[in-house]
Specification:
Helices cover 66% and strands 0% of the residues. The relative contact order is 0.04. The protein starts with a helix and ends with a helix. The protein is flat, with a radius of gyration of 32 Å. The chain is an all-alpha fold.
Length: 139
């Protein structure tokens, strides 16, 4: 964020603050009460925080597994290791296993199956050839 944008944002923040000392005190006490209420949430809702900590621990374990999996796949691909490859390694390499050999996960795709079917055999018409075809057709 540029210095000018930061100055504008701070100015707007100062402009919305109250000028009256009584309203400033009221705003300060409400902000302090809100901060205290937020900080003591787990004291008031122990079961909710316990469930949240279990869910967070599960999320962290899954994130660690996902990062390890991604790192291992990238390492295997970049090291050039060509042992019994997983389906992910074949996808990363852009090739299929030899005919008759199946992937570890039971897939049986062949190289012909992986070729894209949406590419045409003739190049698309250019604007010039389109105009010539349109003139020849009388349109």
């Amino acid at each position: 964020m540029s210095l000018f944008k930061t100055a504008i944002a701070l100015s707007l923040g100062v402009m919305v603050l109250p000028a009256d000392p009584d309203r400033q005190e009221q705003l300060y006490s409400k902000a302090a009460a809100a901060a205290h209420w937020t900080a003591t949430f787990c004291d008031r809702n122990g079961a909710t925080c316990d469930n949240a900590s279990v869910a967070w621990a599960t999320f962290v374990r899954k994130a660690q597994f996902a990062s390890k999996l991604a790192f291992d796949v990238v390492q295997r691909y970049s090291d050039g290791e060509r042992g019994e490859a997983s389906a992910a390694a074949y996808v990363l390499e852009g090739r299929a296993p030899e005919r008759g050999r199946t992937l570890r996960n039971g897939g049986t795709l062949q190289p012909d199956d992986l070729r894209p079917g949406w590419r045409g055999s003739t190049p698309p018409a250019t604007n010039a050839s389109f105009s010539q075809a349109r003139e020849a057709g009388g349109a």
